[in-house]
């Protein structure tokens, strides 16, 4: 199995190029922390608003490095059985009854048999510790802030020692640590104990120049004028008093929708008709009336003149 420390990334620039080659355009700070996470074999915690590209970092790393992506989507009430492992109880009961029918009476021997790898159901966390011919996978623990503190406490062993203790079986430790990326939309604070085990980065909305580069990277067929107009409009609308401003994901969706409509430029009517692709709350859509759209398009035009 390849050594996970043998990444062909000798510099931050090489890491930035790796991500860009797979379609993700990082700023210098993000490229630096990703580079350090890979070189130091440390988990990476990314916080930021929804839609700014946190999850995409893990997807891009997996694609660029040729590793398997294992995703644990967090939610309220997530427990050990769904996240790490559970025992196949029906199969265990059948094995016990067959052993008894065969006349076996050594309870310790029967217990040792049913609490073995054969009856262990691996969930994402445990699966990420298993050997992989392609190299250690990328483990994405997505939207950690949706879980509770008890689940965070369980994660400490995984993040610090790359292992999971199973009372009936023993400790399962990775031969080579997986690449771990955790994301949080910061709907609640993550505990300090977990943060100390990770490298940390806040992923912010991109500048107009970088968002334009992202858009052209993901949708190379988009025209120069339309791409500048899209980015200028999105950058302007983010300054509005909205419940939820659009992220990069919405920028890409809106641009793709405009291409589907064969648009070469955005006028107020087209912007109004497609606003639901960009904004996801009715109050925000209602607030962005015709007068606001006209004003934002004018701001986008002026901004587009300044962005190459």
* CATH architecture descriptor of the largest domain: 3-Layer(aba) Sandwich
Under CATH, the homologous superfamily of the largest domain reads: P-loop containing nucleotide triphosphate hydrolases
CATH topology of the largest domain: Rossmann fold
Tally of separate domains:
3
SSE-based structural type = alpha/beta
Largest beta sheet, briefly?
5 strands, parallel
Distinct helical segment count: 16
Rg result: 24 Å
Report low-confidence residues grouped into runs of 5 or more. 1-5
Quick one: CATH class of the largest domain?
Alpha Beta
Overall pLDDT level: 92
Distance between the termini: 45 Å
Broad shape: elongated
Residues in helix, %: 40-55%
Oligomer description: single chain
Strand content: 5-15%
**Major beta sheet, strand line-up:** 2-5-8-1-9
How would you explain this protein's 3D organization?
- The protein is α/β, with parallel strands linked by helices and 308 residues long.
- The chain folds into three domains: 146 residues, P-loop containing nucleotide triphosphate hydrolases (Rossmann fold), CATH 3.40.50; 33 residues, no CATH class; 92 residues.
- The protein is 50% helix and 12% strand.
- The protein has 16 helices and nine strands.
- It has a five-stranded parallel sheet. It has a two-stranded antiparallel sheet with strand order 3-4.
- Strand 6 and strand 7 form a beta hairpin.
- Helix 1 crosses helix 2, helix 10 crosses helix 11 and helix 11 packs across helix 16.
- The radius of gyration is 24 Å and the shape is elongated.
